[in-house]
């Protein structure tokens, strides 16, 4: 009897250890998306750099592998020397990311190149460029922030003020835990208003939602105020002009 009990206890311990290792010893991923309605209030977005964006999603910022599991603030980067080449993407992958992953206010190719060479080269599955870009495009479809918020009755609205619990409740229904996402804002210095700009979801290596340990904003993003806005997004006529060249790019939003 004692032997059976010991075997049972050893099994339970081994299962618990494996579950902990999934959190402690593996990789984790931070998947970041940005809302064009907020970004384009502060940057000169153009149709040229919106690709085939369909107005029914947030734009991909990136998928960032990380081995520093005690905090999502840290990350690994530039793991191998492999230059980005869109000729290596299939037609299907290129079609997908032209909807889900664009530069908005700056050159799209340069944006994707930056994300692949800094973060994609660190993917633990050693994905090809096509495999990485396809995975990120599919994640944008799977975790479509626009639809997640809409399912909770939250739509872009220039006048509606939002609070943290409204956003977090919507994502808890999808991710299972309220702490598996974090978000930051842009602040209008003239009005003092906050606009939700980037939202990150965090996953274990086996793509199970896990706590995002870091809420530290990057570059121009700031912690949202007690209330904030989720503004509408429509490219104006001036913004829709296909400019041959746009000077003074601001790449400060790149991670």
UniProtKB/TrEMBL annotation:
Keyword terms, alphabetized: Signal
GO molecular-function terms, A-Z: ribonuclease T2 activity; RNA binding
Gene Ontology cellular component terms for the protein in this record: extracellular region
InterPro entries for this protein: RNase_T2-like, RNase_T2_His_AS_2
One BP annotation, GO: RNA catabolic process
Signal peptide: 1-18
PROSITE patterns linked to this entry: RNASE_T2_2
The protein, known as: Uncharacterized protein
